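Let us begin with a simple case.
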Amino acid sequence: MTFWNDPIHFIAEWLRGLFIGWGMSGDVANVLIALIGAVVLASVAMVLDILLVWVERKVVARFQDRLGPNRLGPFGLFQPFADILKLIIKENITPAGADKVPYNIAPILAMTAVLLLWAVLPLAPTIFGVDLNVGALYLIAAGALGTLAIILAGWSSNNKFALIGAFRAVAMMVSYEIPMVVTLLIPTILAGTMSLNGMVKAQDVWFVVLSPLAVIIFLISAVAELGRAPFDLNEAESELVAGYHVEYSGMKFGLFYAAELLHAFTFGGFMAVLFFGGWRGPWAEQYPLLGLLYFFVKAMIGYWVFMWIRYTMPRIRIDHMLAFNWKFLTPLAFVLLMVTALVDKALAGAETWVYALGMFLANVVVAWVTVEILRAYSRRRRLEEEAPAKQVIRTGVEGQAAHH
Protein backbone atom coordinates (compact mmCIF):
# COMPACT_ATOMS: atom_id res chain seq x y z
CA MET A 1 0.00 0.00 0.00
CA THR A 2 1.38 3.42 -1.01
CA PHE A 3 0.13 6.94 -0.38
CA TRP A 4 -1.01 7.41 -3.98
CA ASN A 5 -2.93 4.12 -4.11
CA ASP A 6 -4.73 4.50 -0.77
CA PRO A 7 -3.91 7.82 0.95
CA ILE A 8 -6.45 7.62 3.80
CA HIS A 9 -5.48 4.14 5.00
CA PHE A 10 -1.79 4.97 4.54
CA ILE A 11 -2.10 8.00 6.86
CA ALA A 12 -4.32 6.06 9.30
CA GLU A 13 -1.81 3.22 9.60
CA TRP A 14 1.01 5.71 10.11
CA LEU A 15 -0.92 7.48 12.88
CA ARG A 16 -1.88 4.17 14.48
CA GLY A 17 1.75 3.08 14.62
CA LEU A 18 2.69 6.49 16.03
CA PHE A 19 0.03 6.39 18.78
CA ILE A 20 0.81 2.79 19.75
CA GLY A 21 4.47 3.77 19.92
CA TRP A 22 3.48 6.42 22.49
CA GLY A 23 1.95 3.72 24.67
CA MET A 24 -1.72 3.88 23.60
CA SER A 25 -3.81 0.72 23.28
CA GLY A 26 -5.02 -0.25 19.82
CA ASP A 27 -8.69 0.53 20.61
CA VAL A 28 -7.90 4.01 21.95
CA ALA A 29 -5.71 4.70 18.90
CA ASN A 30 -8.54 3.65 16.55
CA VAL A 31 -11.03 5.94 18.31
CA LEU A 32 -8.58 8.84 18.19
CA ILE A 33 -7.87 8.26 14.49
CA ALA A 34 -11.62 8.19 13.75
CA LEU A 35 -12.05 11.45 15.68
CA ILE A 36 -9.19 13.08 13.77
CA GLY A 37 -10.71 11.91 10.49
CA ALA A 38 -14.10 13.40 11.37
CA VAL A 39 -12.52 16.74 12.34
CA VAL A 40 -10.46 16.83 9.13
CA LEU A 41 -13.50 16.03 6.96
CA ALA A 42 -15.58 18.74 8.67
CA SER A 43 -12.71 21.22 8.36
CA VAL A 44 -12.34 20.50 4.63
CA ALA A 45 -16.08 21.08 4.18
CA MET A 46 -15.91 24.40 6.07
CA VAL A 47 -12.89 25.62 4.09
CA LEU A 48 -14.67 24.63 0.90
CA ASP A 49 -17.63 26.69 2.12
CA ILE A 50 -15.41 29.78 2.18
CA LEU A 51 -14.48 29.18 -1.46
CA LEU A 52 -18.16 28.70 -2.37
CA VAL A 53 -18.95 32.21 -1.11
CA TRP A 54 -16.48 33.60 -3.65
CA VAL A 55 -17.72 31.30 -6.43
CA GLU A 56 -21.37 32.22 -5.81
CA ARG A 57 -20.62 35.94 -5.98
CA LYS A 58 -18.53 35.62 -9.11
CA VAL A 59 -21.17 33.54 -10.89
CA VAL A 60 -24.08 35.82 -10.00
CA ALA A 61 -21.98 38.79 -11.09
CA ARG A 62 -21.56 37.23 -14.54
CA PHE A 63 -25.29 36.55 -14.74
CA GLN A 64 -26.03 40.19 -13.88
CA ASP A 65 -23.27 41.69 -16.05
CA ARG A 66 -21.12 42.75 -13.07
CA LEU A 67 -17.56 42.03 -11.97
CA GLY A 68 -18.07 40.59 -8.51
CA PRO A 69 -15.35 40.66 -5.81
CA ASN A 70 -12.12 42.00 -7.33
CA ARG A 71 -10.43 44.16 -4.67
CA LEU A 72 -9.19 42.01 -1.80
CA GLY A 73 -6.53 39.61 -3.08
CA PRO A 74 -6.11 38.29 -6.63
CA PHE A 75 -9.54 38.12 -8.32
CA GLY A 76 -11.12 39.08 -4.98
CA LEU A 77 -10.23 35.71 -3.39
CA PHE A 78 -9.72 37.25 0.07
CA GLN A 79 -13.18 38.87 0.15
CA PRO A 80 -14.83 35.90 1.98
CA PHE A 81 -12.25 36.15 4.77
CA ALA A 82 -13.10 39.84 5.21
CA ASP A 83 -16.78 38.89 5.39
CA ILE A 84 -16.07 36.26 8.03
CA LEU A 85 -14.10 38.77 10.09
CA LYS A 86 -16.96 41.25 9.80
CA LEU A 87 -19.52 38.67 10.96
CA ILE A 88 -17.33 37.59 13.89
CA ILE A 89 -16.88 41.12 15.26
CA LYS A 90 -20.53 42.14 14.77
CA GLU A 91 -22.71 42.16 17.86
CA ASN A 92 -24.80 39.03 18.40
CA ILE A 93 -28.26 40.22 19.37
CA THR A 94 -30.82 38.04 21.14
CA PRO A 95 -34.34 39.51 20.82
CA ALA A 96 -36.34 40.27 23.94
CA GLY A 97 -38.72 37.41 24.64
CA ALA A 98 -36.78 34.92 22.53
CA ASP A 99 -36.32 31.38 23.83
CA LYS A 100 -32.55 31.57 24.21
CA VAL A 101 -31.60 27.88 24.15
CA PRO A 102 -33.32 26.85 20.87
CA TYR A 103 -32.58 30.31 19.41
CA ASN A 104 -28.84 29.76 19.82
CA ILE A 105 -28.90 26.05 18.93
CA ALA A 106 -30.75 26.54 15.61
CA PRO A 107 -27.84 27.95 13.50
CA ILE A 108 -25.46 25.30 14.89
CA LEU A 109 -27.98 22.59 14.07
CA ALA A 110 -28.42 23.96 10.53
CA MET A 111 -24.68 23.65 9.85
CA THR A 112 -24.46 20.28 11.63
CA ALA A 113 -27.22 18.86 9.42
CA VAL A 114 -25.11 19.59 6.34
CA LEU A 115 -21.81 18.36 7.80
CA LEU A 116 -23.44 15.07 8.83
CA LEU A 117 -24.26 14.39 5.18
CA TRP A 118 -20.55 14.41 4.37
CA ALA A 119 -20.09 11.36 6.60
CA VAL A 120 -21.55 9.07 3.90
CA LEU A 121 -20.48 11.03 0.81
CA PRO A 122 -18.04 8.85 -1.20
CA LEU A 123 -15.41 11.32 -2.39
CA ALA A 124 -13.20 8.62 -3.96
CA PRO A 125 -12.93 4.80 -3.93
CA THR A 126 -11.17 4.81 -0.54
CA ILE A 127 -11.91 8.36 0.65
CA PHE A 128 -15.18 8.56 2.59
CA GLY A 129 -16.36 8.86 6.16
CA VAL A 130 -18.23 5.57 6.42
CA ASP A 131 -19.72 3.24 3.82
CA LEU A 132 -23.14 2.56 5.35
CA ASN A 133 -25.21 -0.21 3.77
CA VAL A 134 -28.21 2.08 4.33
CA GLY A 135 -26.51 5.28 3.13
CA ALA A 136 -29.57 6.50 1.22
CA LEU A 137 -31.70 6.13 4.36
CA TYR A 138 -29.08 8.02 6.38
CA LEU A 139 -29.17 10.80 3.78
CA ILE A 140 -32.90 11.26 4.35
CA ALA A 141 -32.63 11.10 8.16
CA ALA A 142 -29.70 13.54 8.46
CA GLY A 143 -31.27 15.95 6.00
CA ALA A 144 -34.38 16.17 8.20
CA LEU A 145 -32.31 17.92 10.88
CA GLY A 146 -32.22 20.99 8.64
CA THR A 147 -36.02 21.18 8.83
CA LEU A 148 -35.82 21.05 12.63
CA ALA A 149 -33.26 23.88 12.67
CA ILE A 150 -35.54 26.11 10.59
CA ILE A 151 -38.63 25.59 12.72
CA LEU A 152 -36.55 26.15 15.89
CA ALA A 153 -35.17 29.41 14.51
CA GLY A 154 -38.58 30.75 13.48
CA TRP A 155 -40.43 29.71 16.65
CA SER A 156 -37.76 30.75 19.17
CA SER A 157 -37.20 34.23 17.66
CA ASN A 158 -40.47 35.61 19.12
CA ASN A 159 -41.19 37.25 15.74
CA LYS A 160 -44.34 36.58 13.75
CA PHE A 161 -42.58 37.12 10.41
CA ALA A 162 -39.84 34.67 11.37
CA LEU A 163 -42.49 32.15 12.43
CA ILE A 164 -44.44 32.52 9.17
CA GLY A 165 -41.21 32.19 7.20
CA ALA A 166 -40.36 29.02 9.13
CA PHE A 167 -43.84 27.58 8.47
CA ARG A 168 -43.44 28.29 4.77
CA ALA A 169 -39.99 26.73 4.65
CA VAL A 170 -41.04 23.61 6.54
CA ALA A 171 -44.19 23.16 4.45
CA MET A 172 -42.07 23.36 1.32
CA MET A 173 -39.30 21.08 2.58
CA VAL A 174 -41.65 18.40 3.92
CA SER A 175 -43.67 18.47 0.69
CA TYR A 176 -40.73 18.15 -1.68
CA GLU A 177 -38.99 15.53 0.46
CA ILE A 178 -41.63 13.04 -0.74
CA PRO A 179 -40.60 13.00 -4.43
CA MET A 180 -36.94 13.22 -3.39
CA VAL A 181 -37.23 10.09 -1.24
CA VAL A 182 -39.06 8.29 -4.04
CA THR A 183 -36.39 9.18 -6.61
CA LEU A 184 -33.69 8.02 -4.16
CA LEU A 185 -35.24 4.57 -4.42
CA ILE A 186 -34.63 4.48 -8.18
CA PRO A 187 -30.79 4.38 -7.95
CA THR A 188 -31.30 1.86 -5.13
CA ILE A 189 -33.23 -0.41 -7.50
CA LEU A 190 -30.77 0.07 -10.35
CA ALA A 191 -27.72 -0.61 -8.15
CA GLY A 192 -29.28 -3.26 -5.92
CA THR A 193 -27.94 -1.55 -2.78
CA MET A 194 -28.57 1.46 -0.53
CA SER A 195 -24.85 2.03 -0.05
CA LEU A 196 -23.82 5.24 -1.82
CA ASN A 197 -20.37 3.89 -2.66
CA GLY A 198 -22.07 0.73 -3.94
CA MET A 199 -24.25 2.87 -6.22
CA VAL A 200 -21.15 4.52 -7.67
CA LYS A 201 -19.47 1.16 -8.29
CA ALA A 202 -22.64 -0.15 -9.99
CA GLN A 203 -22.68 2.66 -12.58
CA ASP A 204 -20.99 0.98 -15.53
CA VAL A 205 -23.63 3.03 -17.33
CA TRP A 206 -24.44 6.30 -15.58
CA PHE A 207 -27.90 6.22 -14.02
CA VAL A 208 -28.72 9.51 -15.74
CA VAL A 209 -28.90 7.47 -18.96
CA LEU A 210 -31.08 4.80 -17.38
CA SER A 211 -33.47 7.23 -15.67
CA PRO A 212 -33.21 10.85 -16.88
CA LEU A 213 -36.65 11.67 -15.43
CA ALA A 214 -35.40 10.74 -11.96
CA VAL A 215 -32.58 13.27 -12.35
CA ILE A 216 -35.04 16.02 -13.24
CA ILE A 217 -37.35 15.20 -10.31
CA PHE A 218 -34.41 14.99 -7.90
CA LEU A 219 -33.05 18.32 -9.17
CA ILE A 220 -36.38 20.12 -8.68
CA SER A 221 -36.85 18.56 -5.23
CA ALA A 222 -33.28 19.49 -4.25
CA VAL A 223 -33.78 23.14 -5.22
CA ALA A 224 -36.95 23.23 -3.10
CA GLU A 225 -35.18 21.46 -0.23
CA LEU A 226 -32.44 24.10 -0.34
CA GLY A 227 -34.99 26.91 -0.24
CA ARG A 228 -33.30 28.67 -3.14
CA ALA A 229 -35.06 30.57 -5.94
CA PRO A 230 -37.56 29.95 -7.38
CA PHE A 231 -38.58 28.23 -4.12
CA ASP A 232 -37.24 30.85 -1.66
CA LEU A 233 -40.66 31.68 -0.22
CA ASN A 234 -39.27 31.67 3.31
CA GLU A 235 -37.50 34.97 2.61
CA ALA A 236 -39.64 36.73 0.00
CA GLU A 237 -38.28 40.28 0.21
CA SER A 238 -41.66 41.97 -0.26
CA GLU A 239 -43.25 40.03 2.63
CA LEU A 240 -40.90 38.45 5.14
CA VAL A 241 -37.52 40.17 4.54
CA ALA A 242 -35.24 37.33 5.69
CA GLY A 243 -37.81 34.81 6.86
CA TYR A 244 -36.98 32.44 9.69
CA HIS A 245 -33.54 33.99 10.37
CA VAL A 246 -34.65 37.64 10.29
CA GLU A 247 -33.73 38.11 13.98
CA TYR A 248 -30.22 36.67 13.68
CA SER A 249 -27.09 38.79 13.40
CA GLY A 250 -23.34 38.29 13.29
CA MET A 251 -21.94 34.80 12.98
CA LYS A 252 -25.28 33.20 13.84
CA PHE A 253 -26.68 34.53 10.59
CA GLY A 254 -23.39 33.60 8.93
CA LEU A 255 -23.90 29.96 9.92
CA PHE A 256 -27.31 29.89 8.22
CA TYR A 257 -25.82 31.43 5.07
CA ALA A 258 -22.81 29.08 5.10
CA ALA A 259 -25.09 26.07 5.64
CA GLU A 260 -27.17 27.03 2.59
CA LEU A 261 -24.13 27.32 0.31
CA LEU A 262 -22.52 24.10 1.56
CA HIS A 263 -25.87 22.32 1.33
CA ALA A 264 -26.16 23.32 -2.33
CA PHE A 265 -22.69 21.95 -3.12
CA THR A 266 -23.45 18.80 -1.11
CA PHE A 267 -26.59 18.19 -3.16
CA GLY A 268 -24.50 18.69 -6.29
CA GLY A 269 -22.22 15.97 -4.90
CA PHE A 270 -25.13 13.64 -4.21
CA MET A 271 -26.45 14.16 -7.74
CA ALA A 272 -22.99 13.19 -9.01
CA VAL A 273 -22.98 10.08 -6.78
CA LEU A 274 -26.53 8.97 -7.56
CA PHE A 275 -26.72 9.63 -11.29
CA PHE A 276 -23.36 10.69 -12.81
CA GLY A 277 -20.93 8.02 -11.66
CA GLY A 278 -19.56 9.88 -8.64
CA TRP A 279 -15.80 9.46 -8.45
CA ARG A 280 -15.67 7.08 -11.42
CA GLY A 281 -13.44 8.02 -14.33
CA PRO A 282 -10.25 6.91 -16.09
CA TRP A 283 -7.72 5.44 -13.59
CA ALA A 284 -9.83 6.55 -10.61
CA GLU A 285 -9.67 3.17 -8.87
CA GLN A 286 -5.87 2.98 -9.21
CA TYR A 287 -5.35 6.59 -8.06
CA PRO A 288 -8.05 7.68 -5.55
CA LEU A 289 -6.87 11.30 -5.62
CA LEU A 290 -7.81 11.36 -9.31
CA GLY A 291 -11.24 10.02 -8.37
CA LEU A 292 -11.47 12.84 -5.83
CA LEU A 293 -10.86 15.32 -8.65
CA TYR A 294 -13.56 13.71 -10.81
CA PHE A 295 -16.03 13.92 -7.93
CA PHE A 296 -15.38 17.60 -7.21
CA VAL A 297 -15.65 18.53 -10.89
CA LYS A 298 -19.03 16.79 -11.19
CA ALA A 299 -20.25 18.24 -7.88
CA MET A 300 -19.20 21.75 -8.94
CA ILE A 301 -21.10 21.36 -12.22
CA GLY A 302 -24.18 20.39 -10.20
CA TYR A 303 -23.65 23.39 -7.93
CA TRP A 304 -23.36 25.63 -10.98
CA VAL A 305 -26.74 24.31 -12.19
CA PHE A 306 -28.26 25.24 -8.83
CA MET A 307 -26.84 28.76 -9.19
CA TRP A 308 -28.06 28.99 -12.80
CA ILE A 309 -31.61 28.15 -11.70
CA ARG A 310 -31.47 30.50 -8.72
CA TYR A 311 -30.40 33.57 -10.68
CA THR A 312 -32.64 32.90 -13.68
CA MET A 313 -36.08 31.78 -12.47
CA PRO A 314 -38.67 34.09 -10.87
CA ARG A 315 -40.19 33.24 -7.49
CA ILE A 316 -43.21 30.90 -7.47
CA ARG A 317 -46.38 31.64 -5.50
CA ILE A 318 -46.72 29.31 -2.53
CA ASP A 319 -50.08 27.78 -3.54
CA HIS A 320 -48.76 27.14 -7.06
CA MET A 321 -45.59 25.64 -5.62
CA LEU A 322 -47.42 23.21 -3.33
CA ALA A 323 -49.93 22.30 -6.01
CA PHE A 324 -47.09 21.58 -8.43
CA ASN A 325 -45.59 19.16 -5.93
CA TRP A 326 -48.69 17.31 -4.73
CA LYS A 327 -50.63 17.25 -8.00
CA PHE A 328 -47.77 16.67 -10.44
CA LEU A 329 -44.28 15.94 -9.12
CA THR A 330 -45.16 13.40 -6.41
CA PRO A 331 -47.54 11.30 -8.59
CA LEU A 332 -44.96 11.36 -11.41
CA ALA A 333 -42.23 10.18 -9.02
CA PHE A 334 -44.35 7.24 -7.82
CA VAL A 335 -45.28 6.24 -11.37
CA LEU A 336 -41.63 6.41 -12.42
CA LEU A 337 -40.61 4.29 -9.42
CA MET A 338 -43.16 1.59 -10.29
CA VAL A 339 -42.20 1.57 -13.97
CA THR A 340 -38.49 1.38 -13.05
CA ALA A 341 -39.11 -1.57 -10.71
CA LEU A 342 -41.17 -3.45 -13.31
CA VAL A 343 -38.70 -2.88 -16.16
CA ASP A 344 -35.76 -3.78 -13.89
CA LYS A 345 -37.46 -7.09 -13.05
CA ALA A 346 -38.40 -7.76 -16.67
CA LEU A 347 -34.85 -7.11 -17.95
CA ALA A 348 -33.02 -8.90 -15.14
CA GLY A 349 -30.13 -10.86 -16.62
CA ALA A 350 -30.20 -9.01 -19.96
CA GLU A 351 -27.07 -7.60 -21.56
CA THR A 352 -25.97 -4.17 -20.41
CA TRP A 353 -26.94 -2.34 -23.61
CA VAL A 354 -30.37 -4.04 -23.71
CA TYR A 355 -31.00 -3.14 -20.06
CA ALA A 356 -29.88 0.48 -20.60
CA LEU A 357 -31.99 0.88 -23.74
CA GLY A 358 -35.07 -0.63 -22.06
CA MET A 359 -34.76 1.67 -19.04
CA PHE A 360 -34.24 4.74 -21.22
CA LEU A 361 -37.24 3.92 -23.45
CA ALA A 362 -39.39 3.35 -20.35
CA ASN A 363 -38.54 6.90 -19.22
CA VAL A 364 -39.36 8.22 -22.69
CA VAL A 365 -42.77 6.54 -22.56
CA VAL A 366 -43.51 7.93 -19.08
CA ALA A 367 -42.47 11.42 -20.22
CA TRP A 368 -44.63 11.18 -23.38
CA VAL A 369 -47.71 10.01 -21.42
CA THR A 370 -47.15 12.81 -18.88
CA VAL A 371 -46.97 15.45 -21.61
CA GLU A 372 -50.16 14.13 -23.22
CA ILE A 373 -52.01 14.18 -19.89
CA LEU A 374 -50.85 17.75 -19.24
CA ARG A 375 -51.87 18.78 -22.75
CA ALA A 376 -55.37 17.34 -22.30
CA TYR A 377 -55.68 18.98 -18.88
CA SER A 378 -54.60 22.39 -20.18
CA ARG A 379 -57.01 22.11 -23.11
CA ARG A 380 -59.91 21.29 -20.77
CA ARG A 381 -59.03 24.16 -18.44
CA ARG A 382 -58.78 26.59 -21.34
CA LEU A 383 -62.23 25.58 -22.57
CA GLU A 384 -63.66 25.97 -19.07
CA GLU A 385 -62.21 29.46 -18.73
CA GLU A 386 -63.32 30.51 -22.22
CA ALA A 387 -66.89 29.26 -21.71
CA PRO A 388 -68.13 32.22 -19.56
CA ALA A 389 -66.65 34.73 -22.01
CA LYS A 390 -68.31 32.98 -24.94
CA GLN A 391 -71.59 32.92 -23.01
CA VAL A 392 -71.37 36.68 -22.42
CA ILE A 393 -70.64 37.31 -26.09
CA ARG A 394 -73.51 35.03 -27.15
CA THR A 395 -75.90 36.75 -24.73
CA GLY A 396 -74.86 40.16 -26.05
CA VAL A 397 -75.38 39.13 -29.67
CA GLU A 398 -78.79 37.63 -28.90
CA GLY A 399 -79.77 40.80 -27.03
CA GLN A 400 -78.80 43.01 -29.97
CA ALA A 401 -80.73 40.75 -32.35
CA ALA A 402 -83.81 40.94 -30.15
CA HIS A 403 -83.51 44.71 -29.93
CA HIS A 404 -83.40 45.04 -33.71
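The second case is a distinct protein. As before, the sequence precedes its C-alpha coordinates.
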Amino acid sequence: MREAGMSLLRATLLFGLGIATLAVLIVPTIEKRSREISMGAGIDTMRVGSIDKSNVYTIRRSVLQASPDATCIIEADGTRRGSC
Protein backbone atom coordinates (compact mmCIF):
# COMPACT_ATOMS: atom_id res chain seq x y z
CA MET A 1 0.00 0.00 0.00
CA ARG A 2 2.80 2.39 0.89
CA GLU A 3 4.64 1.68 -2.39
CA ALA A 4 1.50 2.43 -4.40
CA GLY A 5 1.21 5.82 -2.67
CA MET A 6 4.84 6.66 -3.41
CA SER A 7 4.41 5.62 -7.04
CA LEU A 8 1.38 7.88 -7.36
CA LEU A 9 3.30 10.76 -5.77
CA ARG A 10 6.26 10.25 -8.12
CA ALA A 11 3.96 10.10 -11.16
CA THR A 12 2.20 13.29 -10.06
CA LEU A 13 5.48 15.12 -9.53
CA LEU A 14 6.83 13.94 -12.88
CA PHE A 15 3.65 15.04 -14.66
CA GLY A 16 3.77 18.44 -12.94
CA LEU A 17 7.41 18.90 -13.85
CA GLY A 18 6.64 18.08 -17.47
CA ILE A 19 3.81 20.62 -17.60
CA ALA A 20 6.00 23.30 -15.99
CA THR A 21 8.78 22.62 -18.51
CA LEU A 22 6.37 22.90 -21.44
CA ALA A 23 4.99 26.16 -20.06
CA VAL A 24 8.49 27.65 -19.76
CA LEU A 25 9.27 26.69 -23.35
CA ILE A 26 5.93 27.38 -25.05
CA VAL A 27 4.85 30.71 -23.50
CA PRO A 28 7.76 32.80 -24.90
CA THR A 29 7.27 31.25 -28.33
CA ILE A 30 3.57 32.10 -28.38
CA GLU A 31 4.26 35.64 -27.14
CA LYS A 32 6.87 36.17 -29.86
CA ARG A 33 4.51 34.92 -32.57
CA SER A 34 1.65 37.13 -31.37
CA ARG A 35 3.98 40.15 -31.43
CA GLU A 36 5.10 39.28 -34.97
CA ILE A 37 1.49 38.91 -36.09
CA SER A 38 0.44 42.26 -34.61
CA MET A 39 3.42 44.03 -36.17
CA GLY A 40 2.74 42.34 -39.50
CA ALA A 41 -0.84 43.61 -39.37
CA GLY A 42 0.40 47.19 -39.23
CA ILE A 43 -0.47 47.71 -35.57
CA ASP A 44 2.02 49.99 -33.87
CA THR A 45 1.99 49.43 -30.13
CA MET A 46 4.27 52.42 -29.44
CA ARG A 47 3.03 55.95 -28.89
CA VAL A 48 5.08 58.53 -30.72
CA GLY A 49 4.94 62.31 -30.51
CA SER A 50 6.98 65.24 -31.65
CA ILE A 51 7.49 68.77 -30.38
CA ASP A 52 8.95 71.94 -31.82
CA LYS A 53 12.64 71.99 -30.81
CA SER A 54 12.60 75.76 -30.25
CA ASN A 55 10.00 75.39 -27.47
CA VAL A 56 11.57 73.67 -24.45
CA TYR A 57 9.36 72.63 -21.55
CA THR A 58 8.95 70.01 -18.85
CA ILE A 59 5.84 67.94 -18.30
CA ARG A 60 5.19 66.71 -14.77
CA ARG A 61 2.56 64.26 -13.63
CA SER A 62 2.17 63.00 -10.09
CA VAL A 63 0.23 60.23 -8.42
CA LEU A 64 -0.41 62.69 -5.59
CA GLN A 65 -2.54 65.00 -7.76
CA ALA A 66 -6.33 64.83 -7.47
CA SER A 67 -6.83 63.60 -11.03
CA PRO A 68 -4.65 60.91 -12.64
CA ASP A 69 -4.77 62.90 -15.90
CA ALA A 70 -3.64 66.18 -14.30
CA THR A 71 -0.55 67.54 -16.05
CA CYS A 72 1.75 70.40 -15.08
CA ILE A 73 3.71 72.07 -17.91
CA ILE A 74 6.72 74.15 -16.90
CA GLU A 75 8.11 76.44 -19.62
CA ALA A 76 11.82 77.23 -20.01
CA ASP A 77 11.30 80.67 -18.41
CA GLY A 78 9.70 79.09 -15.31
CA THR A 79 6.06 79.87 -16.05
CA ARG A 80 3.66 77.08 -15.23
CA ARG A 81 0.37 76.07 -16.75
CA GLY A 82 -2.01 73.21 -16.21
CA SER A 83 -2.50 71.48 -12.85
CA CYS A 84 0.63 72.52 -10.98
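The beta strands are 57-60, 72-75, 80-82. DSSP finds one helix and three strands in the chain.
Keep these points in mind for the review questions at the end of the chapter.
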